[in-house]
């Protein structure tokens, strides 16, 4: 059976990477610079030498790398791990289900970034522009 948007697989993936990287960068800016209301709407940055500060640094740097598609696999792998840690440290103690503990975004980011880590930067990326091997794959790695 044909996929409805099968011809747009690579552009759709690029948009997923770009948007996820952009929104993750905003979370980092929020924590590190107090932008967009800062943590809890206070408008104040968190201390860099704190757990939230380290998280903000990861979010800002990894988000930018994912957004522009430079070493996106590595950045997304680290970001996925950060989101898994965030879920289990911050949300899981409040309950098992992400819908009841407020952890939906952490879970979604963790799995989106895990997917990006497996796919690489793809099209519309600096990896592709610089020939770093992060471009679109045209042949499968494993053939039956």
Strand content bin? under 5%
Structural class, from secondary structure content? mainly alpha
**Total E-strand runs:** 0
Give, in order, the helices and strands. Answer: HHHHHH
The residue-averaged pLDDT reads: 91
Radius of gyration: 17 Å
Helix content: 55-70%
What would a concise description of this structure say?
By secondary structure, the chain is mainly alpha-helical. Helix content is 60%, strand content 0%. It has helices at residues 9-33, 51-68, 72-91, 98-101, 104-119, 126-129.
Descriptive account of the structure:
The structure is a single chain. The chain is mostly helical. Helix content is 60%, strand content 0%. The protein is built from six helices and no strands. It has helices at 9-33, 51-68, 72-91, 98-101, 104-119, 126-129. Helix 1 (9-33) runs antiparallel to helix 2, helix 2 packs antiparallel against helix 3 (72-91) and helix 3 packs antiparallel against helix 5. The model has no long low-confidence stretch (mean pLDDT 91).
